[in-house]
Specification:
Elements: H1 3-12, H2 19-25, H3 42-50, E1 56-58, E2 65-78, E3 90-96, E4 100-107, E5 112-115, E6 118-124, E7 131-140, E8 143-147, E9 152-160, E10 163-174, E11 177-182, E12 187-188, E13 195-201, E14 209-216, E15 223-230, E16 236-238, H4 245-249, E17 251-256, E18 262-267, E19 277-282, E20 287-290, E21 301-306, E22 309-317, E23 323-332, E24 337-346, E25 357-361, E26 364-368, E27 374-378, E28 384-388, E29 396-400, E30 406-412, E31 421-428, E32 433-440, E33 445-454, E34 457-464, E35 470-476
Parallel strand pairs: 1-24, 2-28, 2-32
Antiparallel strand pairs: 3-4, 4-35, 5-6, 6-7, 7-8, 9-10, 10-11, 12-13, 13-14, 14-15, 15-16, 17-18, 18-19, 19-20, 21-22, 22-23, 23-24, 25-26, 26-27, 27-28, 29-30, 30-31, 31-32, 33-34, 34-35
Length: 477
């Protein structure tokens, strides 16, 4: 397994319930617990920027509630199991209740992966640095159809803050989608004490650039600096050019608006700010604004709803600095207008005996009552969607689709190896449909990750209990 396989696998691992990690995951940023520190002189600059906004607190919106009626598909899924019967991948399919199409891809090696709509098999050199061969297939009905791609090789060769970041990567564009592969590019100093690395992320809707992160350190010492890598020329563009370096020195990462004109930079915790800090950075103007000053709400973090709207998160803590409740505001960036959309709502913790409260997903949240009633709340508008006829139970979880128009529901068996997913369902918030089906035979697999591939497709990575056979289970809703 190379580092690229690992990173793609991590993207499908269940999101942690920690609030910031849920927010960070919306832009495919590495999931980490936020730790921040104060930057001298920053507050004065932030207040100067804040004066550019006209602050007005709007009345809470008139709430509109839609109802989705839950129904369970009577037909149960028969989860496949068993050893590989032939060399290479094999595929079978099923239809569950005439509503869900399932495709089961059986593989004899962990070197297979699935990204950009294609199944791939990668062969790396012995040292894991060179991609020697790559095979691709398109999954169609009950067939794996070989696909030829125009694979290209490019280089990263950058001196940054006295460190040399270098290595090859491979990329291609197929049917309008960009995909890439990298080896393990981490380097260490002679003493083996200090590490530096680089990695890429895809930018939704873009095929001409990749987001390049130059990083140093590991765990609590991890720092990163983002650049745009232009594939046609190999040139890089510093996204934080001119920004006070002390800000980045105290940051553990950033999430970006879709147009990459603004970023939310998270700062590490300090004695003065035990819950951390966050800043809104405008690339066009070069201005930096403390999120706490936006709208005068004192919010300690935010998320992008769209290029012009932030969701401000106001948090309440107990005497042990444990998050207890949250208040949400929609903040219109051009006008500074603020609208409260959800007030003083308990925060969800799955370790509780009867978990309830709010799960956050960027600009939406799932609100679970003490009785198990579930509502999906649009944190920009305040509109709610009730999942009628459904009762949330411990072991249940949700995951929002890339565009935010669907909600994946799944239930996990704590006695199974791996995730032990006993039930899967989808709530389509636009079509007003919510259904789920039970699964049989999941206990014969070790299911390691579940996630959205696109707005209509969910996949599960799994292996047999002896780890000899690997599966990709693909569901189309």
């Amino acid at each position: 397994m190379n580092i690229d396989d690992y990173r793609r696998g991590m993207d499908q691992i269940l999101p942690d319930k920690k609030l910031k990690e849920r927010i960070m995951s919306q832009k495919h940023t590495k999931k980490r617990t936020p730790v921040r520190r104060m930057v001298n002189g920053l507050l004065a600059a932030a207040l100067a920027v804040a004066c550019l906004f006209t602050v007005a607190l709007a009345a809470s919106p008139e709430l509109r509630t839609a109802v989705l009626s839950f129904f369970r598909i009577e037909e149960r899924e028969q989860v496949p199991s068993g050893g590989v019967t032939s060399d290479g991948p094999d595929i079978s399919n099923a239809e569950i209740g005439q509503l869900v199409k399932a495709q089961y891809i059986k593989m004899d090696s962990y070197q297979y992966g699935f990204s950009g709509g294609l199944l791939h098999h990668l062969t790396w050199s012995e040292d894991g640095r060179i991609l020697e061969d790559a095979k691709f297939w398109q999954v169609r009905d009950n067939e794996l159809i070989p696909v030829e791609v125009d694979m290209r090789t490019s280089q990263v060769d950058i001196m940054f803050k006295g460190l040399h970041y270098q290595g090859e990567f491979w990329w291609f564009i197929h049917e309008g989608q960009l995909d890439y592969f990298t080896a393990d590019n981490r380097a260490w100093d002679e003493e083996g004490e200090h590490a530096w690395d680089w990695n890429f992320s895809l930018i939704p809707g873009r095929t001409d650039v990749l987001l390049l992160r130059l990083s140093t350190g590991t765990q609590m010492e991890y720092r990163e600096h983002p650049l745009l890598y232009h594939l046609d020329t190999g040139a890089t563009e510093d996204l934080f050019a001119g920004l006070d370096p002390d800000v980045l020195a105290g940051s553990d990462g950033a999430i970006w608006s879709d147009n990459f004109q603004m970023a939310l930079i998270t700062g590490r915790a300090s004695e003065e700010f035990p819950n951390g800090r966050e800043w809104l950075y405008d690339r066009e103007t070069g201005t930096l604004t403390d999120v706490r000053t936006l709208g005068g709400m004192g919010a300690d973090m935010a998320a992008f709803a769209d290029d012009d709207t932030l969701i401000l998160y106001g948090s309440s803590y107990d005497e042990n600095d444990m998050l207890q409740a949250m208040t949400f505001y929609a903040y219109d960036i051009p006008s500074g207008r603020v609208t409260k959309t959800l007030d003083q709502t308990p925060y969800y913790r799955d370790r509780d005996e009867d978990p309830n409260g709010v799960m956050t997903f960027g600009s939406r949240c799932v609100l679970i009552s003490e009785e198990g009633q579930v509502q999906v709340v649009d944190l920009k508008t305040g509109d709610r969607t009730l999942l009628g006829g459904f009762t949330f139970q411990k072991g249940d979880d949700f995951m929002i689709s890339p565009s935010g128009n669907k909600l994946l529901y799944f239930s996990m068996d704590p006695n199974a190896d791996g995730l032990g997913i006993s039930r899967i369902g989808v709530a389509d918030l636009e079509k007003g449909v919510f259904f789920a089906f039970d699964r049989e035979g999941y206990e014969n697999l070790d299911e390691g990750g579940i996630g959205w591939d696109d707005d209509n497709t969910v996949s599960i990575r799994a292996s047999t209990l002896d780890n000899e056979t690997h599966y990709l289970l693909v569901y189309q809703f």
